[in-house]
Batch of 4 targets.
Target 1
Amino acid sequence: MIATSLTVVLLSLFSTVFTQTDWLGGSGSVGPVGNWEDSFECSTGIDWAAEQGKISLVQNTSVPEVITSDLDSPACMGAADIDGDGDTDVVCAGFLANKLVWFEHNEPSGWTMHDVDVNVPSCCATCVLDMNGDDFPDIINASEVTGVISWYENNGTGTHWNRS
């Protein structure tokens, strides 16, 4: 079996800030004035902010956080607050693992895998939404092999799932 890493990119901002406050001739002077070194270049990773007499550039980088590498062939994912604790959890179909799982986001970091159904042949096409209006995110999932589409009703904590 080939294990595939499930990676979700979570934005963790490691910022380097460069601020220009000395305009040497007032507004309208030719700039930039100051030493930006090699840090300022055409990049989508640079944000800027302006105040009167001040421009700040912030260089941001995204750091991927691996949720798991123990789920064989993750096929489809969804995100919602499955357990009602206020943070976003991840639901994933394991195509070759033949199971449907959700990953509890443990603040401030870390993930715990919970099984929803461990017998879904070629588990795929996962969708997370509140099907019955009880304000708890439910899961809709399909099996490619059997052609069965199932609704998993969430009890609000993600600890028990009623399959329809």
Target 2
Amino acid sequence: MPSVAHTSIFFVENNASTGQNASTPTSLIRAASGGLSTNYWVVVGRHLQTSMPRTSIVISMINLPGFVLTGADPPSFSHCPTGCVFNVFALTTPAEITEFVHSLPNKQCQCDPLPTWLSKANVAILSPFLRHFFNSCLEHGSVPSSFKSGYITPLLKKADLYATDVKSYRPITNLSVVSKVLERLVARQLVRYLTENSLLPRLQSAYRAHHSTETALLKVIGDILLALDSGNLPMLSLLDLSATFDTVDHYSLLQRLRTSYGLCGIVFKWFMSYLTGCTQFVRTSATASLPLPVVHGVPQGSVRSFSCCTSPISCS
């Protein structure tokens, strides 16, 4: 009888119902006046954390930020290798700023003072001022409060979903172009540090160069074919995290960045500043909802969204 080849990726799908009156036909309309939809996306992470039942599936190996089961032990974090420390940012240059500005897509949101095409056309004039501004943020480990306030544009996940159900929408956070340039500066240095110190999981296929869904699929298919050729019966378990970006626990994320990846000093202070004092609101074509504080999650649409997924999931 063929043996069973197990994979140590466990998938737990949670379809917990969250939000208040999320399926009522007026939910999206009421967002403009009462902040209902904003409240749904702000608290969805906390609701999922507290409502997720304990399970008999062994998931102790999964230490995702925000993945906290009610009544479960507090999350544990592996320690980064000795000597891996990321405590200061390198200062940026006008050339680097120009590179990032030119790489931006030609779109902007209502919080941008200038259209992106105009910023690109005048980047030679703006870059010295942006360099001084960005270097001040990097040296002091701070993020301007205006960069931490975003407005949500709800996008329907699939065309066949109910347009009146708030859960049918993906909350894309609109952030200013200038804030995204700052994010790219930080992301480049963080990814370089993680790569040079081999801190990224070997099989992580997202948020890194030369890794994608294609390489992940090739790996899985290759493992299945090898198992079959060896006379084994392969089994694949798939994990679907509900509202992944919305359920990131800020404290757990910061603890992981410090303990598992060696962030400290000004660098750690910068990430603390980014996650503190965030607000968001829903904007429609005519009006906007009331802003609410964000205590869970990272913006979908932010360059730094990858940081919440930088977590080891053991895989064989």
Target 3
Amino acid sequence: MVEQPGGPAAAGARRGVLSGLAKKRRSDADADADADADADADADADAGIGADAERPGVIRTAVPARLDRLPWARFHWMIVIGLGTVWVLDGLEVTMVGAVAPRLTEDDSGISLSASDIGTAAAIYVLGACLGALFFGQLTDRFGRKKLFMLTLGVYVVATTATAFSWAPWFFFLCRFVTGAGIGGEYAAINSAVDELIPARVRGRVDLIINGTYWLGSAAGSALTVLLLSRHVFPADVGWRLGFGLGALLGLTILVVRRHVPESPRWLFIHGRAEEADRIVDTVESAVEAETGRLLPEPRGSIEIHPRKTTGLRTIVATLVRTYPRRSALGLALFVGQAFLYNAFTFDLGTLLSTFYGVDAADVPVFFVVYALGNCAGPLVLGRLFDTVGRRPMIVGCYLASAGLAAVLGVLLHAGVLGAWTFTLVLVVTFFFASAGASAAYLTVSEIFPMETRALAIALFYAVGTGVGGITGPLLFGHLIDTGRTGPVMVGFFIGAAVMALGGVAELALGVEAAGRSLEELATPLTARQATARTVSRTTAASVAASRAGCPSRRGPAPRRW
């Protein structure tokens, strides 16, 4: 699935020797840098963070290169488990509400929602997720990844716990809105942190696998409801409450693991906290060396930045719209396409099966488990290819393949040649590719924009894509299924296929090949551009002054180490 650690943890004596060698190597590097102030190569090779005495406020750091050259280790598993499991929670939430909806409309459920109330609750959850992504996304870029991914998970846990104690429709709606806001905020904070902490060479597969775990939560939610809704096991007003309680318990467990995940060193040095970023990377490097039994190679390359505390919303929007208009158009096309197709099929699958294949409502969760597992398999199986074959060919292939299969499925449905299980089988193959493509949409927008804008960019495209495709898809398919005729539904399949195909065409025309490339190479941080601009300005001024004084300009000393 992902690259495994290079070797077992060394014995205590071996670790001591390695630690001593590492310290000696770093001490020698420091001495060389101090002895030759003009040696830029030594400064770049140095794995620390430096400040330029002649250019106040400008620092040189190798933190990105140091993180990207790390072998896969326990630290990365902690990132995957502590941060990636948010998608499991989202899948559990969405599926749980859909599965328990019939129970909530019963008189003895303890809340007695109407059928329209169920639809309202779903819409409110999506609205909360969109607004939460935008609100918390901006805060994530401003205050840090860790503060926000702890806060948003806490919001989710509190709101989900409150949902379990709902006694009236208005309180249920309120809890669903806040729960959605927490999950939407998680999307922005988590995808930012994961991409900034995972090495570039495996970033694609790890991101896809993490996003694909949504369907593990979905499958678990479907399976759980079979037990929780059984009147032989739990009373009608208890089972559905336990379902939400289990979601909150899982969230608390993740919160405990997440406490040990550090702040993104990339975010820290961008915001002027260079020493803290250096300490975190030092700690990670020492742990990895002790675990693998090998010294790490020297990092290659460094970056100069002019740190600043915050980046204004106006600057962020201008960056997305003016500096990267093609990438912004790509992000919208990918998100709208996958949101339309996914929400249309997922929300209306049960209705479609019962209307055209006579599947009993009690049996729908079984079909949904199969559907969810097929979705999960796509990123798991294809994820590695996004790092080896490349982003563009894989995204184009997944989007166009799922579009073509969706169109074929519509024709087969109208022709009446499929049964309930054969229809589900073709659907699983379709979304095997669609799931990998949809996960790649999140990967794309999280790595092709500057770091100062990353979280808000993820939030913006998620909110717009979900708002446009995620709402129109289910509404359209719901009305078409209500006709009771397969002809109109086939047209709906064609529309979904066309919207998905547009995402594939957009990737073909506008896609950025990001496989194996550092985030800073894909999109230069705004603070790095600022540092470059100030350097050019000061160098020009110094040259003019030297010329007027009748002497050649002289290069200043190399950045000193912190």
Target 4
Amino acid sequence: MEQSIYILALPLLSFITLALIGKKLPHKVAGIIGTLSLLATTVLAYVTTAGYFLAGRNADGIFAEAMPYNLTWLPINETLSIDLGILISPISAMMLVVITTISLMVHIYSLGYMKGERGFQRYYAFLSLFTFSMLGLVVATNIFQMYIFWELVGVSSYLLIGFYYTKPAAIAASKKAFIVTRFADLFFLIGILIYGYYMETFSFTPGETALAAAGTVLPTALMLMFIGGAGKSAMFPLHIWLPDAMEGPTPVSALIHAATMVVAGVFLTARMFPLFIEFAPGVLHIIAYIGAFTALYAAIVACVQTDIKRVLAFSTISQIAFMMVALGVCTGSDPHDGGLGYMASMFHLFTHAIFKGLLFLGAGAIIHAVHSNEKSHMGGLRKYMPVTHITFLIACLAIAGIPPFSGFFSKDEILAACYAFSKPMGLFMSGIAAMTAFYMFRLYYLIFWGKSHYEEQLALYRSGNIAHEPHKPHEAPMTMTIPLVILAAATCVAGFIPFGEFISSNGHSYAIHLDTKVATTSIALAVTAIVIATIMYIKPGRRITRIVNVVMREPIRAAYHRFYMDEAWLFVTKKIIFNCISRPIAWFDRHVIDASLDLTAKGTQWLGALIRPFQSGNVQTYCVYLLSGALVILLILLYLN
């Protein structure tokens, strides 16, 4: 485990190197430095994870947490201190594999996608910083160390989303992401401080005495922490930053919005799960209901979006919500009796990172070929991009829950946990899973089937109706297709990993088994949704599609505008917070606080002006004052006598 320190050191060193001398390096050299650093980090992460699990279980039948490094950074009192170190647990070991794998694929992919971009070296420096921050978050030994890296993740995501800083939309998106997540992080920090004060530690495992005396304080602290996680994981209504974050480079979307930053809230909830399940089960159920509503909302919005990356963004929100629901429906720590959702959530986090990373990178290859995010500029691309087509289809099948792809196995476990919690919750989430299959295959058909936009433009050019010959779509270069093939292969086999053997709610080995009834129902719903999508979108202009668009015109318009949540937030912030709260406070600050201080200053000035003549430096004036004072004193003495 001693090598685990280098998992953090290498990306940090890469960031420092590229930040300091990156401008002096050729683009290719800077990219190679960043990529080789991540390759070494990935190898170390795999070695560390393999060593941790191969060490076997302890006498209690669980994988004991390992802490190869820990130091006291900031002592606060005799019992409370902020420590820095590395803690390896089953879920942190899994996250090391996920983060480094996806980050490595993004680094390789970016060599082709970002080729020739201004700021190429800066881009790789920011990637290294983000990877370092996320790795530090998952191996944190305590909640305060996690918060430190949590904020570093926020800063680096701000830098990556706003990479194209000359584009106003990118600037606005980066600020929006930063402000919304900072707002949520305020609650996270308050929760941490309450937790530290009453538990007398920032450790994930407080003492029994503090826990016994906690009362309602611990559930309150955990709920506040979840709000911070809800901001990072884009839960409703704090989801508004994620769709706009697509203004960043597409590989960044694969890294931030597939495998790392957006699952930080899920990881936080899972890390604190023992406390949630024992002392705040009601908070867990609130999390489940928030997640269920978020999943539905995001799925509906994804069904009508026309920007390929925004479809994937709302898909991500919906899938992260599935993970939150899985954690929230747990009623116990035994995976055989109420704790299945914990394993299901982590399993889906693992598989989702792979196929959603594949979807985003596939979207990047498509955008690279057609120079547009809009699906109206696509169509018929399967003939021109066969590798991207096949890999994208595999990812669509996985997220739709079709066996034997990985998404089927993890989503089936989530649905089984939901049905165990309550039948209405199971049916509700099954319906959302069917919607997922529908909007993903709508996306797939509109991109790869139907009329080719290129061929239509080429016909117009040849007939003389447009002046310039359209750009012919082409397959992406090897640096971009190799990561697609690797992730597609992983998507095909990841579902067969005996995940429960490594991660479960109580740490004991759990053999995953499919619930035949749940699996049959979910497959039937997914296939039905795919058939509906096929009927409506495999060919453009279908009569049924036109009828649906006419009949559902207003709901579709509302969903396209995200049910006006951005406008609602603007109303709340500008009309209510700014006008009704901020302006009165500003008036009070200017006219009461500032005025009272100004009065003090003016009084001092008046007094100074009054006594200034006594210090004029004129000897004659001093003599007059002296004689006048002496005369006054003499008169007083004569009067008194």
